[in-house]
Protein: Alcohol dehydrogenase-like N-terminal domain-containing protein
Organism: Zymoseptoria tritici
Amino acid sequence: MSSYKFEGWLGEDKDSVKGNMRWGEFEPKKWTEDDVDIEISHCGVCGSDLHQLSSGWGETPYPCVVGHEIVGKAVKVGSNVKHIKQGDRVGVGAQARSCLQKDCPDCTNNLENHCAIGTVNTYGSDS
């Protein structure tokens, strides 16, 4: 259990895409030692977020928190994470968790978003 709250703008139905959202707390996914908790300072909203809010890619499980392109400070870092430490300024784009290993052809060729080893889409994802 963390000592901080997870808060954000919650979309509760398809009308949320029109701006009908409410500020509230939400339960994050279960913590693993592969995770990094980020205190968000900046967040973008893009077309993917609008599709998610309006169930444009299939039925969205509401309530839904959007804004998957973020910048902030790492406040909790799992023991399996080797390239980030607590207090680091970090950014997350549309994909996260590439392996970044020197023997990965995708990661070494600036194609981290295609990494077959560990890419996670950061929208509509609970893993």
Q: What stands out?
A: Helices lie at 47-53, 105-108. The first strand starts at residue 7 and ends at 11.
